[in-house]
Specification:
- The chain has 218 residues and is α/β, with parallel strands linked by helices.
- It has one domain: P-loop containing nucleotide triphosphate hydrolases (Rossmann fold).
- It contains 7 helices and 9 strands; from the N terminus they run E-E-E-H-E-H-E-H-H-H-E-H-E-E-E-H.
- It has a 6-stranded mixed sheet with strand order 5-6-7-3-8-9, sandwiched between helices. Strands 2-1-4 form a 3-stranded antiparallel sheet.
- The longest helix has 16 residues, at 155-170.
Length: 218
């Protein structure tokens, strides 16, 4: 579904990995390791200096790719001068997925009920981050790119976000998730980066064990 071959950009050196449909792919690494650059390369806002990136097996036109990808970036992602309801409604209307019920459900899940009349620029950092995440997940994208989505969130809110991501994953969304801390329990596989290089491939042993148990029972 997503494949990087010998990709170089900024400090990234010969990056190779493949993400299959419905993977929950974790990219682990310290600040400056190259995690954000990888997401920007996948999203297409930067181009590789060397190597190739293929998305959706190149079956979808470039102009349509961004409509199928949700991107939770560390900066931007909200309309500062619009209130919470408008921020959630406008992208849904543009994607023809709007309903009042969908917006109200998202507001409840994100715990933003008491903030609905505030503009995005007036929200506390944690609520602004939740709003940004809500905008991205509301579109139910084929691929969700999440760059350090737990930034500004306490443990309770982090668990809420992981639960939202898992709901998407269960209906078929492929998730690519960066973190400088620890990988979530839901991940299926991933990579660990250091100074722009892959130093380890990550596999969720619990996930593999469950698949093997299922095969045995079958």
């Amino acid at each position: 579904m997503i494949e990087l071959k010998d990709v170089c950009k900024f400090n990234l050196k010969n990056i190779n990995f493949k993400i299959e449909k419905n993977d929950w792919f974790a990219i682990l690494g310290h600040n400056g390791a190259g995690k954000t650059t990888i997401l920007k390369l996948i999203y297409g806002v930067v181009k590789p200096d060397k190597g190739n990136i293929s998305l959706f097996e190149n079956k979808i036109k470039q102009a349509s790719i961004k409509k199928k990808i949700g991107f939770i970036a560390q900066d931007g992602g909200v309309l500062d001068n619009k209130d919470v309801i408008s921020n959630l409604s406008i992208p849904l209307k543009l994607n023809r997925k709007y309903s009042k019920n969908k917006v109200s459900t998202l507001i409840d899940k994100l715990g933003l009920g008491e903030f609905t009349k505030l503009k995005a620029c007036e929200l506390p950092a944690s609520r602004r981050q939740l709003l940004k995440i809500g905008i991205a997940v509301s579109k139910e994208p084929l691929v969700l790119l999440a760059d350090e989505p737990m930034e500004h969130l306490d443990n309770e809110k982090s668990e809420l976000v992981l639960s939202l991501f898992n709901e998407l994953h269960l209906i078929g969304t492929t998730i690519v998730f960066t973190t400088s801390k620890s990988v979530p329990e839901y991940f299926t596989k991933g990579i660990s980066l250091k100074n722009g290089e892959i130093i380890e491939e990550l596999i969720n042993k619990k996930e593999v064990s469950e698949i093997e148990d299922w095969k045995v029972e079958d």
